[in-house]
Amino acid sequence: MTMDRADIVIVGAGHGGAQCAIALRQNGFAGTIMVVGREPEYPYERPPLSKDYFAREKAFERLLIRPPAFWAEKDVNFLLGTEVTAVEPASRQLTLSDGRSLGYGKLIWATGGEPRRLSCAGADLAGVHAVRTRADCDALMAEIDAGKREIVVIGGGYIGLEAAAVLSKMGLKVTLLEALPRVLARVAGEELSAFYQQVHRDHGVDLRLDARVDCLEGADGQVSAVRLEDGERIPAQAVIVGIGIIPAVEPLIRAGAKGTNGIDVDAGCRTSLPDIYAIGDCAAFACDFAGGQVMRVESVQNANDMAICVAKAICGDERPYRAFPWFWSNQYDLKLQTAGINTGFDQTVMRGTPADGAFSVVYLRDGKVIALDCVNSVKDYVQGRKLVELGITPDIGRITDATVPLKELALAPQD
Predict the structure, then answer these.
(1) What is the pTM of this model?
(2) 345 with 364: CB under 8 angstroms?
(3) pLDDT tens across 175-220, in order?
(4) What is the spatial distance between Cα 380 and Cα 399, in angstroms, rounded to a whole number?
(5) What is the enclosing helix (H) or strand (E) of 145?
(6) CA distances from 285 to 146, 259, 271 (A)
(7) Residues near 86 by Cβ (< 8 Å), separated by ≥ 6?
(8) Cα 251 to chain center, whole Å?
(9) What is the spatial distance between Cα 363 and Cα 369, in angstroms, rounded to a whole number?
(10) How far is CA 246 from the centre of its chain?
(11) How far apart are CA 276 and CA 153, in angstroms?
């Protein structure tokens, strides 16, 4: 269906954009909806790309958030393979990458981010990959199918670690480079970092810490090695770069939206521009679960919950956004579940033993539980959420005792 205006235009066909369209219909919105997506595919789940899909354990069709017939039934229209290059708030017009214009009544910006690229020489060589889209994964899978066995992963965050785990399980020679003194340094305590470092090394990953990349070397335009600042040269038939994302917000910033790290939004996910909302990875908001710090939260949960918040507001049920933040990561046979945000923690305590492969790290600030990282500890995760929500100040002796259910601490009297 072709149209030059829609009552609601959603820019971005990821988790947030898809959920917003679904929630609008669920809440009774009867107007026209247009979703503009830069990729050619209908909305699909991102987390399995670097795991199940890459390992060929799940076909792409099983990653689709909804089948194409669903969108047709709900009368949600799509412009795929298309980007928004400019926003004109006064006239409520978007300029598209194919030169056309698209008008809107309300605009929801759900573009997520672009993979952060290396800034060193050789970063544009063939064989250097991100793992954020289906096309990224397909390109890397094709190279591995062609016989490439030496893979260097740059970045020791969750994306890099998950990719390294899958590649290692495939029997490839994997070197993982982290510029900081430990993996997960920006998101986890030292206990969790040390655990995952050992796990990856036990699975044959050559994990290097304090490893700073100087440049990438190539032959005939194809990457052949990663050279470190100390001069060491690591052979690489392919390179995966997992060093974070840059929010995809330039058209909105040029249109006058406020924001320095993404787009700033208020408690209702509104930007500073009239009738324009922002949700998901690209939206910066004052997070109640991080002491009110303005931040972007990169998670499927946040994208989906922000989408629902905006959809309900448009349909007349406006409430401030205060969804509980949670995250997960699957590596090897380990399932990590995180409840809350550990920003500003000043104490960590352990429940269980890492050597057993099942334990939890509890993060506290001023004596209160603010977050938990639970490895193969579903009960701790489920029950620990309540400790974070209630801001419980626990007895340290009891919280370190893994035989004491966390739900008992949630019921304990507070001073």
Answers:
(1) 0.94
(2) yes
(3) 999 999 999 999 999 999 999 999 999 999 999 999 999 999 999 9
(4) 10
(5) helix 134-145
(6) 45, 10, 10
(7) 94, 95, 251, 254, 255
(8) 21
(9) 6
(10) 12
(11) 38
